[in-house]
């Protein structure tokens, strides 16, 4: 079943998450129509290879053309229209930057895998529960309702101001008419009645002015309360969700809704500001004793300007945190002299601001690093698919400055991966007579000078964003706080779901918990220190817990990814637990687990039964990335042989735990069918014996211990077949034993 087919079977709450990251950058229609083709391409590799990305983009356009031909024959007008629009988008937007579409599609596929992994988990973790709190959802609805009500109130007040203006014009006309009469005419009874009417009209004007000012005051108060409470909380919640998403958590949404709220409030405030300007205009034409406008208007205008300043300052946000395109799953880790991207947005989307706001990017002011590349750009509404007012820096590079001695501060592999920095951004908005200076900063970033520092740098990013809501605590690691183990385990599961497409289940997480804290029954409230996570070596080992885990992630990603995604790698299980699981199983049942003693190693253990009925277990030396680069792991499982004393080689692996036939589990992952034994052809020197490498272990009858590295020997099945024609199994065993003893 394709990944897209699995996505379509998800519950509605997960489908809503999928819907959030499909937009005009990569329309869902294309994902649906080209599901199998899209999943069969290596978009992640193309994201780092422009030539490959260009080929994939051209092939994608060809696929769209094929679909367009098909739907044209079916006369599906709506789909024809959408596909033409998509084709135009692909050709126009990505032709000059094909790696961008590769990054987008790669991210979408990865998010799908993360959501599928989350859906397969029986229980949500504490962090994810907090992000999906029903109280938060209710507040979001309340904010949108209140913003809409405020907008309506401001528009109604516009009508009141217009009525006041009409009333004053009528008063002004009648008053000037009386003033133009001769003095004798002014003493007439009719004129006296008119003067009384004017006084009554002036009273109405006074009442209406007070009423309009009162309504304006209420609108301002409503905006003030909304900004001070619910809207601020909404923005802080979004920023927290962004932090969690950066370390592998659920995709954060809701920014378009926030933009709508900020924009409507800004429009309402500018509308109120125009109403106050209109009142000032009316004041210059008519004033009187007790006039409320000169008393109340300055205070109201000052409050409106204050709210606009705060609204704009809060609306200037980092939409996408700094990230190297070469490591999309490791944001906020930046390598010197390597380009990174970062995107900013102004949540107040006004057409008057398009291309009028120039943003400058700088790095923190300790003068140790500088930013190279284009660091000043204008915000616009054209580059974003949703038309947001944003700017994306794509060519920034951090450069480490030389010290007075001519060297660099922490050059080379010893650069401190706990030292935090921030990328700062500043701009100025000039609109309707207001000048507002805006500043914002990225979440803390870690600078590295060598990719070997990336794992520890990423550990720092995880720990920071797990432990604090503070977006700018650059001294965090001077005294890093402990983390709740239950939350840390949830984040560790996210590392697997976001990076290798499948999260960890409760049994796997329990094993990690035991590795971190020992044999303790409950760990929900256990506090784990930063040192124990990333700095102290595991008991009896020469590496830390995080280094061990990161090596496993790398192993999965590069060598056993399909097997991991299918759920066939139990992985995190102790030697003691694996024997408990296997002891009552059919002989030949095996499971796959990660090595606890070797970095980035995977091994398999199978159960066997001796002639006396006793159960025995065999584990092979762990396979590391060096061996797996030469021979796919699925092929190893298929071809693996053991040589028992006085016996011929045979494959002991029959059933994947608990009882899945081996070929049923791994058959689709075999790289090729095993070659049949054959002899050299009659062509003499032109013919060769076809061969494949197979791993062979020699096991003595009374041996139940894991075997040494030298017990593994590559042997061609065809070579073994030729040997069997001339030698007995005992002679072959003797020859193998001699070879092993000499190596």
From TrEMBL:
Keyword Acetylation: yes
Gene Ontology biological-process annotations: cell surface receptor signaling pathway via JAK-STAT; defense response to virus; negative regulation of developmental process; regulation of apoptotic process; type I interferon-mediated signaling pathway; type II interferon-mediated signaling pathway
SUPFAM superfamilies (alphabetical): p53-like transcription factors (SSF49417), SH2 domain (SSF55550), STAT (SSF47655), Transcription factor STAT-4 N-domain (SSF48092)
SMART domains the UniProt entry points to: STAT_int
Name of the protein in its database record: Signal transducer and activator of transcription
Keyword match DNA-binding: yes
Listed InterPro entries: p53-like_TF_DNA-bd_sf, SH2, SH2_dom_sf, STAT, STAT4_CC, STAT4_DBD, STAT4_SH2, STAT_linker
Keywords tagged on the record: Acetylation, Activator, ADP-ribosylation, Coiled coil, Cytoplasm, DNA-binding, Isopeptide bond, Methylation, Nucleus, Phosphoprotein, SH2 domain, Transcription, Transcription regulation, Ubl conjugation
Organism of derivation: Sylvia atricapilla (blackcap)
Compartment(s) where it occurs, according to its Swiss-Prot or TrEMBL record: Cytoplasm; Nucleus
Domain SH2 positions: 564-666
């Amino acid at each position: 079943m394709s990944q897209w087919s699995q996505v379509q079977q998800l519950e509605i709450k997960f489908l809503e998450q999928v819907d959030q990251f499909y937009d005009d950058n990569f329309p869902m229609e294309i994902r649906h129509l080209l599901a199998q083709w899209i999943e069969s391409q290596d978009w992640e590799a193309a994201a780092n290879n422009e030539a490959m990305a260009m080929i994939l983009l051209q092939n994608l356009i060809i696929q769209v053309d094929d679909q367009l031909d098909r739907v044209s024959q079916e006369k599906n007008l709506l789909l024809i229209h959408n596909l033409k629009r998509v084709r135009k988008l692909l050709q126009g937007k990505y032709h000059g930057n094909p790696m961008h579409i590769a990054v987008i599609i790669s991210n979408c596929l990865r998010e799908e895998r993360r959501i599928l992994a989350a859906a397969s988990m029986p229980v949500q973790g504490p962090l994810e529960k907090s992000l999906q709190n029903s109280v938060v959802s209710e507040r979001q609805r309340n904010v949108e309702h209140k913003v809409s009500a405020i907008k309506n109130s401001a528009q109604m007040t516009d009508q009141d101001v217009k009525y006041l203006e009409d009333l004053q014009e009528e008063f002004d006309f009648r008053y000037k008419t009386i003033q133009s009469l001769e003095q004798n005419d002014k003493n007439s009874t009719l004129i006296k009645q008119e003067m009384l009417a004017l006084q009554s009209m002036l009273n109405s004007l006074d009442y209406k002015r007070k009423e309009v000012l009162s309504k304006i005051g209420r609108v301002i108060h409503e905006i003030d309360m909304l900004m001070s409470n619910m809207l601020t909380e909404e923005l802080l919640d979004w920023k927290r969700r962004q932090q969690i998403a950066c370390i592998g958590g659920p995709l954060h949404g809701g920014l378009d809704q926030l933009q709508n709220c900020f924009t409507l409030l800004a429009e309402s405030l500018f509308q109120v500001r125009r109403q106050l300007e209109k009142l000032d205009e009316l004041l210059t034409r008519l004033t009187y004793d007790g006039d409320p406008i000169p008393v109340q208007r300055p205070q109201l205008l000052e409050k409106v300007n204050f709210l606009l300043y705060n609204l704009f300052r809060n609306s200037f946000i980092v939409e996408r945190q700094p990230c190297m395109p070469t490591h999309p799953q490791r944001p906020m880790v930046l390598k010197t002299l390597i380009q990174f991207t970062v995107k900013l947005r102004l949540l107040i989307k006004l057409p008057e601001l398009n291309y009028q706001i120039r943003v400058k990017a700088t790095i923190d002011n300790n003068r140790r690093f500088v930013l190279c590349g284009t660091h000043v750009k204008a915000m616009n509404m054209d580059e974003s698919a949703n038309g947001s007012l944003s700017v994306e820096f794509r060519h920034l590079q951090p450069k480490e400055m030389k010290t007075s001695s001519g060297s660099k501060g922490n050059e080379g592999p010893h650069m401190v991966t706990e030292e935090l920095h921030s990328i700062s951004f500043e701009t100025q908005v000039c609109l309707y007579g207001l000048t507002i200076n805006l500043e914002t900063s990225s979440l803390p970033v870690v600078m590295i000078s060598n990719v070997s520092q990336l794992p520890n740098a990423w550990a720092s990013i995880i720990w920071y964003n797990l432990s604090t809501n503070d977006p700018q605590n650059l001294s965090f690691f001077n005294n890093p706080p402990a983390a709740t183990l239950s939350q840390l385990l949830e984040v560790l599961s996210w590392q697997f779901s976001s990076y290798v497409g499948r999260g960890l289940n409760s049994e796997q997480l329990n094993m990690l918990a035991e590795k971190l804290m020992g044999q303790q029954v409950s760990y929900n409230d256990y506090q784990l220190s930063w040192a124990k996570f990333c700095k102290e070596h595991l008991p009896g080992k020469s590496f830390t817990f995080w280094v061990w885990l990161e090596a496993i992630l790398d192993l999965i990603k590069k060598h056993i990814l399909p097997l991991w995604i299918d759920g066939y790698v139990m992985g995190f299980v102790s030697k003691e637990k694996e024997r408990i699981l296997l002891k009552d199983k059919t002989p030949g049942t095996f499971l796959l687990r990660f090595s606890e003693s070797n970095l980035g190693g995977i091994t398999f253990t199978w159960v066997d039964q001796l002639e006396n009925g006793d159960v025995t277990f065999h584990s092979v030396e762990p396979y590391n990335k060096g061996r797996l680069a030469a021979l796919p792991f699925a092929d190893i499982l298929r071809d693996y042989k053991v040589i028992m004393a006085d016996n011929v080689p045979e494959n002991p692996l029959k059933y994947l735990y608990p009882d899945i036939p081996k070929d049923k589990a791994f058959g689709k992952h075999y790289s090729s069918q095993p070659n049949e034994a054959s002899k050299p052809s009659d062509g003499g020197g032109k013919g060769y014996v076809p061969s494949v490498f197979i791993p062979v272990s020699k096991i003595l009858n009374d041996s139940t211990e894991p075997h040494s590295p030298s017990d593994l020997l590559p042997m061609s099945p065809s070579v073994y077949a030729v040997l069997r024609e001339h030698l007995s199994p005992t002679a072959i065993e003797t020859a193998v034993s001699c070879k092993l003893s000499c190596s």
